[in-house]
Amino acid sequence: MVAPTIQSTGTATDTGTTGRRQRVFSGMQPSGNLHLGNYLGALRNWVTQQEAYTNVFCVVDLHALSLPTDPVELRANTLELATTFLAAGIDPAQTILFVQSDVREHSEAQWLMSSVTQFGELRRMTQFKDKSDGRDDVSAALFTYPILQACDILLYDTDLVPVGEDQKQHIELTRDIGHRFNTRYGETFVLPRPDIKPEGARIMALDNPLKKMSKSSGTANSLIYLVDEPDAIRRKVRRAVTDSGSEVRGGTDKPALNNLLTIYSLLSGRSVAQVEQDYEGKGYGAFKGDLAEVVVEKLTPIRERLETLNADPDEVRRILHDGADRARAIAGPKLDQMRDRMGLGI
Ligand code: ATP
Ligand code: LTN
User: Fold this and answer.
1) What band does 17 get if pLDDT is binned at 50, 70 and 90?
2) Catalytic: 212?
3) Residue 35 CA: which ligand 1 atom is closest?
């Protein structure tokens, strides 16, 4: 039994089947500093679409426990990630921003949903295969991780989930198990769609355009962090690999250039074709020099806001606690409904 098929991209004009304002949910793990891939593939879209939707964004600290974590580091990373969301433009006045473990409904819902999830479905998840790398000594949490992610999404009657390409399979699983619950116990969940933009959904490593830019498997020169100082950004862009040839023109045999052109285009607001035209006859050197400045110009305000917000962590904690209260007010009744329909409690 599989949920009805879906399109992966939603638009701000979607009204959904219920006629209510569409709800967006997304989350990120507090597993270290955010990089340009996280920003262009996910966070930037959260911010730009904020006014068109009702939004719920979450720092998924429970998910971070699926790999070995140091408690002190986890707590610091959680605060830092939430602060980065705010610095990038998430507005707590219009958006619910909270820490996953503060809303305990997620963990309870996970157990309930694990009873409608098949072992074989989890075994097919490519992120599990990548992260476990064939080893048996990984945690059971790494295996059941997608059930918790499904609960994050389903508890909030989510219509759209803005993520990068690598999360598509998890959203499909969310639909499948949500649909199975609905069929078995009665209509309870909205089935969400992934919102994956065609551009920026898979930013590649600067030193290897065949691998995605990634926190956990990246080398120092493969990624640009949102908190990188201008000089570090310039150095990394200068060292980024390019393809053979000298013309600034993308193409199927130019993975490195395609990646740099995508980054330039998304950050400058100019289309790839316009950028190619701008650099006709100018060569890689000029292009990379300007690309570095485009990145510096976009990331500097975020880094500066982050520094300001870091000076008042109690204010960030207050925003997160308020967000958790608002999240609980939605997730609580949904969990009660699940329990009731499954025959739990007397
Ligand atoms: P890890 O390598 O530890 O899995 P990550 O860098 O891939 O981490 P996540 O925390 O898994 O990042 O992802 C956060 C969000 O950023 C997700 O929506 C994911 O799809 C998106 N994302 C991650 N890497 C990229 C990338 N290279 N290009 C575009 N989007 C990305
Ligand atoms: N699995 C995601 C993080 C994540 C998430 C979510 C994303 C956890 N819960 C709910 C969207 C919606 C990741 O690894 N990036």
Assistant:
1) low
2) yes
3) 6
